[in-house]
Amino acid sequence: MGQGDYKDVSTDEQLIAMLRDGRTEVMDYLLEKYKNLVRKRANALYLIGGETEDLIQEGMIGLFKAIQDFRPDKEATFYHFAEMCIARQMYTAVEASQRKKHTPLNTYVSLDAGQDGQDGLYMHAGQPQTLDPEAMFISRETVKQLLQQLSERLSRMERQVLALYLEGMNYSQIAEQMGKTPKSIDNALQRIRGKIK
Question: Which residue pairs from 172-179 have beta carbons closer than 8 angstroms and sit at least 24 positions apart in sequence?
């Protein structure tokens, strides 16, 4: 039975029963069927330090859990159960992004893709996390020198893109602010990474 054949099955609850009877391809069908619901939910939320795609991924995890955990003996339909699981997974991700727990990780920006298994180049985008005045001064001076050297190598547009990227904006936000396409912003960041190397 191909994925298209499942359109004739009248309820999602029947599909879940088929999945539990060993028809593993039903999982793919349900994930695809509910993907638009996940996208709709993701577009209504904002994830600090993330993009809509991150929320979609979280929503798909929630959908997967719903498929795994659905119990037909309960009062809820699969649709409503899935909707609740998707929303819960996304809200958890949004709440986690707002906590200060991951601030050090969230304030460093990768300037290098880290190819060939090497670590990328990271620059601190916020205030240094140490209270040692000497370390704070050295950190600020290092960032200042790096930015000065970059400033001499980068075009005006690349400097603007880098500044906005270091402020925490994603490709779409930078593109919107600069009146460019996300692809041109991606290209600019690729050139910046190349010049840093």
Answer: 172/51
Q: Which helix (H) or strand (E) holds 185?
A: helix 182-196
- So what's the pLDDT on residue 133? 61
Q: How far is Cα 46 from Cα 67, in angstroms, rounded to an integer? A: 25
Best-predicted range by mean pLDDT among 52-56, 81-85, 132-136, 138-142?
81-85
DSSP string covering 39-96, please? HHHHHT---TT--HHHHHHHHHHHHHHHHHH--TTSSS-HHHHHHHHHHHHHHHHHHH
The count of C-alpha atoms lying within 13 angstroms of the C-alpha of 155, restricted to the half-sphere facing its C-beta, is: 10
Entry pTM = 0.48
